[in-house]
Fold this sequence. Notes:
With 199 residues, the chain is of the alpha/beta class. The chain has one domain. The chain contains four helices and six strands. It has helices spanning 2-24, 65-80, 135-139, 176-197, and strands at 28-45, 56-61, 85-88, 98-111, 115-127, 157-174. The longest helix has 23 residues, at 2-24. The chain is elongated, with a radius of gyration of 21 Å.
Amino acid sequence: MNMKKQHIAGITILIICIISAFSLGTITLMKSTSGASSHIDAYSFGDPHPVLSTGISVYMEGTGDLQDLLQREIITILQDKNIPVFSSDTLLHEYDTHIIALSIIEKDDIYTPLYSKGTYVVFFYYASSGKTTYFEQFRSGESPVVSFTTSENDTDTIIIKGTITIQDTSTGIMSPSGYQGHIAELMAQKIVNDLENHL
């Protein structure tokens, strides 16, 4: 009888460990079908040829697991390109570096451990001058008149803003954080690729 209780206790502990690892870990044994699209606009003054290797700050609007993962993923991609990156928790009016500011403006998804599907729209804003003057207006869908001054800071300046849409369907075995990590990686790669293609 004592042996039977020990056996049941061992199985119970094992099940608890598996459930904890699944819910808290980044388990992903899945197959995904993903698509990405974007709409990008650029505004420039002078003849800008920005060099990201001088440093870039990354600001993520809002809080949540997906926001944190997206900011970390973009920082990792940029660092892998030997670009000095600075994380910003607060949106400043002006940075001493280039700035990329991000906001997840749409998230429509369903998650299950065996099947997940979602559509995600991310707004991003880049300014070589480090100024965030138009971020909130563009993000809210407004169309402000972009103007540049002839001050030294605005010489050869470029602003890039855009939205990227990620659509994904995944089947297999996936934890919540594992699936969100997959989505964040898709978002980050698309944003960095689009940014580089317009610089």
